[in-house]
Amino acid sequence: MNRNILNDEELLELLYNTNWSDSEDGLDVSDNEQDHNVVNIHENIGIPTNDNDEGNLDLLDLPIEIQSNSVETIHLPSVSTSNLTNQNQSNVLNLTPRRSVRHVSISPLVNNSRADTNESSNAKKTGNLQRKPAALTNLKWKKGSLVTPSACLTFIEPTLPHDLLLLETPLDFFAYFFTNELLTKIKEETELYAVQKNPNKPVSLSINEIKRYLGICIYASVLHVPKIRDYWSAELGYPVIFNAMSRNRFELIKSVLHFNNNDSMLSSNDPNHDRLHKLRPLIDYLNSRFSSIPCKQDLSLDEQLCATKAQSYMKQYLPDKPHKWGFKLFVLTDIQGYGYRFEIYSGQENNSIFRHPNEPDFGASSNVVVRLSRNVPVNKNHKIYFDNYYTAIPVMEFLYQKNIYSLGTVRINRLPNCPLPDKNGEKKMKRGESIEYITSYESAPISAVI
Questions:
Q1: What is the dihedral of CA 330, 335, 338, 340, to 10 degrees?
Q2: pLDDT for 51 beyond 90
C-alpha cells in the first residue's frame, strides 16, 4: 500500500487551512453538551506562592497542565491573572501555550499544604468538591502555646437526683431504665403484632412475663450453650431459666416481640422512611432515660459494635474491633464507661428529617458529635474527647460556642495551611520534642500539637 508522505510545506498548509472547530459528522466536538468554551491560557502566568489561593478553588477552577519551552511539565492553577499577586515578580515565567484546555485535571502545586493536596485528590475521586468557608481555608498558624484560663476549666460536679440515690441492687438500676411505662409499651405492641400476624391466634402477655423474658436473654448472654433449646435440656439446662418460663412460651414471645406498629411504617420509597422504625420508640426512650443522669466533666465519643450473625444490610465490618461484624453504634460516655446517649448507624443520620433546625451540617463524621452532644449542658465547661474520625475545626468551634471544650487526634488534611511536619519530618524530631501551632477560627482558639 502506497502512502502519500507530506512534506513540511504541505503539512503546514493543511494545519493552517483546516477548520478544526467542525467535525466530520457535523456534531459538536465536545464530549459535554454544555461545554462550549475553551480555556485560554495566557502567555504570562505567575505561580502563586500563597497556599490560601489553592483552598478557594472551585470544582470548575482546578489546576491545569501546560508545558514550557524547555519541554518541562509545570502544574499551574487556572486562576485569572487579576488574582495573582504582584509581589512575586520573580516567580513569573514566560510560558508559551502548547494547547487549549477543555477539561481540567487536578495537579496540586508542590508548595501546597498536604491538606490542599488531599482535598484535591478526594475531589478527583468523587467528582464533587464542596466550597469551604474562606475563614477556614485562610487560617493563619503561628508557633505558640494555647493558654486556657482557669475559669474555663472550673467544673462544679452536679448532684444526683433523689430517686437515683435510693437505688441499691442491680435490679433497681435496671428497672430505672426499663420502667413499667416502657414494658407496657412493649406489651401493647407485641399483642398488636400477634393479631396482625395471625388474627386467629392472638397472644396475651403480662408485664411479669416480659420481665422474665428479658431476664432469660441476659442469662443467655453470659451462659453459652450450642443451641437455645439446650437451656431447657436435662444435661445442659439451667434451673433459673427453665423454672422461670417454659421453652414453648419463650419461643412464642420471641416470635412476636415488637416495639412499634408496622402499620405506621412508611414505604422504603418514601423520603421520610425510617430504617429503624421498628426500634425507634425503644431507642428514644432509652436515650431519654440515659440522659437523665447528670453528665460528668470528661466525656468520650466513639463507636461500638453490637456483634451479630444475622443478615442485614445495616450490618457493618470493623476490622479493629474484637467482633468484626455487627451493628455499629455511636456512643457518648464518661470516663467510667456510662453511656449518656447512643445512636445506631443506619446511613440516614444526615438526612434533614433527623437534624434539628438549628444544627449545622459539618459532614457525616462531625455531625455525629453534634447529635450526641445535644443533651450536654452548655456553659458548664464540659470536655469531649474523640479520635480523628470526628475531629474537625468547624465542629470544635461549634462546641466552643456552648462552652464545651474538645480534644482529639486529627487527620492532617483537616488542618488547612497548618505547617506541621509530615511523617518524614517526625522521624527527625528528638525524643520528647513537640511542636505546637495555634490559630483561631471564628471566635475559637485552636491548637495543633505533634
A1: -60
A2: no
DSSP helix/strand/coil, 448: strand
∠ at Cα 111 (109, 114), nearest 5°? 85
Which CA distances in Å does 29 have to 10, 23, 102, 187? 25, 6, 11, 68
Interval 55-66: pLDDT, tens: 333 323 333 333
By the 10 Å C-beta count (0-12 exposed, 13-18 middle, 19+ buried), 138 is classed as: middle
Are 289 and 306 a contacting pair, CB within 8 Å?
A: no
For residues 382 and 155, the answer to whether their CB atoms sit within 8 Å is yes
pLDDT digits (tens, 9 = 90+) for 125-167: 444 445 678 888 888 999 988 888 888 889 999 998 888 999 9
Distances (CA, A) of 95 to 40, 42, 113, 138, 373: 13, 8, 25, 29, 54
Instruction: Report whether pLDDT(13) > 80.
Output: no
pLDDT computed for residue 236 by the predictor: 87
**Locate cell 515578580: which residue?**
89
Listed in sequence order, the DSSP H helices in 297-440 are 364-372, 393-400, 423-427
| C-alpha–C-alpha distance, residues 427 and 432, integer Å | 12
Helix, strand, coil share (%) of the chain residues, nearest 5: 35, 15, 50
pLDDT at residue 310 in the model:
86
57, 91, 127 from 107: Cα distances, Å: 12, 18, 14
3 — pLDDT class (breaks 50, 70, 90): low
Output the nine-digit C-alpha cell for 221: 448472654
Using DSSP's 3-state secondary structure scheme, residue 280 falls into helix
**Contact between 418 and 113 (Cβ < 8 Å):** yes
Nearest in space to 280 (alpha carbons), one of 339, 375, 223, 353? 353
- What letter does residue 157 receive in the DSSP assignment? P
Contact 130, 90 (CB under 8 A): no
Residue 362 to residue 394: CA distance in whole angstroms: 7
* pTM metric for this prediction: 0.68
Q: 244 near 232, Cβ under 8 Å?
A: no
